[in-house]
Design a protein that fits this description.
The protein is of the alpha+beta class and 206 residues long. The chain is built from 5 helices and 8 strands; from the N terminus they run αααββββαβββαβ. Strands 1, 2, 3, 4, 5, 6, 7 and 8 form an 8-stranded mixed beta sheet that branches. A hairpin with a 5-residue loop joins strand 2 and strand 3. The longest helix has 20 residues.
C-alpha cells in the first residue's frame, strides 16, 4: 500500500462530508456528515504536522459541492533557461503560479500569477500539462488538486519581489536550485525542457 494512501482517504472523506453537508437537510444526516469530516480531520492531523484544531478549521472553511482545486503554473523560457521564483515561506524555488480565482480563465490566472510573483509580463500560448497532483510525488496536501502548466511567452517586464516571493531568476536545465516539492517536481521541470525541445508535442495529462 502506498505510504500516502491515508492522504487519499482523507481527501475522499472530506469531499464526501463537504458535499453531503451542502445538500443534507435532515439533522441526523448533517450530524453524520460532520462526524465523517471529524474522522478525516483526525486522520490528517495524526499523519501530518498539522494540529487538529487547524485541520478542523481548514475543512470547515470548505463549502459547496466538493471539486478539485485548480493550481496554475507559468512555464516561461528565455533562451534555454526557465523562470523560477523563490517562496519566502520555505526558501525553495518554483514556477510562478497559484490558485485560479473565480471570474477568470485558467489562461488569465496564470498570466496574472506570473506577473504578481515575478514582475514579468507574459502571454499564455500552450497548455503543456494537466496533472492530477495526487499522481505525482509532491508534498502531502489535504485537498485534491489539478495542476495546469502553461507555456507562457515572455513579453517584457523586470524582476520584482512580492509578498510571497523573495527571488526571481532564470535557470538553465543543469543549474536548477532546490525546488519546492509542494509546488513543482524536478521531473516536471525536466519534462517542460523536453517540451521546449519538441514544440510539436501534445499536452500531457494523467
Amino acid at each position: 500500500m502506498s505510504n500516502l494512501k491515508w492522504l487519499e482517504w482523507v481527501q475522499r472523506l472530506q469531499a464526501i462530508a463537504q458535499t453531503g453537508l451542502s445538500y443534507a437537510r435532515d439533522p441526523f444526516d448533517v450530524e453524520r456528515y460532520e462526524a465523517v469530516r471529524e474522522v478525516a480531520a483526525e486522520m490528517a492531523s495524526t499523519h501530518s504536522d498539522a494540529d487538529l484544531p487547524h485541520v478542523r478549521d481548514l475543512f470547515a472553511g470548505e463549502v459547496g459541492h466538493a471539486t478539485p482545486k485548480v493550481d496554475v503554473r507559468a512555464v516561461v523560457f528565455r533562451g534555454d533557461a526557465i523562470l523560477l521564483v523563490r517562496e519566502r515561506a520555505e526558501g525553495r524555488w518554483t514556477l510562478p503560479g497559484g490558485w485560479a480565482d473565480i471570474g477568470e480563465s485558467a489562461g488569465e490566472a496564470v498570466v496574472r500569477e506570473a506577473y504578481e510573483e515575478s514582475g514579468y509580463r507574459t502571454r499564455a500560448v500552450k497548455l503543456l500539462a494537466a496533472y492530477d497532483r495526487n499522481k505525482h510525488p509532491h508534498s502531502p496536501y489535504p485537498f485534491h488538486v489539478y495542476k495546469l502548466f502553461f507555456q507562457c511567452e515572455l513579453l517584457g517586464g523586470a524582476p520584482v519581489l512580492s509578498v510571497e516571493t523573495d527571488g526571481v531568476e532564470f535557470f538553465r536545465e543543469n543549474e536548477l536550485p532546490e525546488l519546492s516539492i509542494m509546488r513543482v517536481t524536478a521531473a516536471q521541470v525536466a519534462r517542460f525542457f523536453e517540451h521546449l525541445r519538441h514544440p510539436d508535442w501534445p499536452t500531457d495529462f494523467d
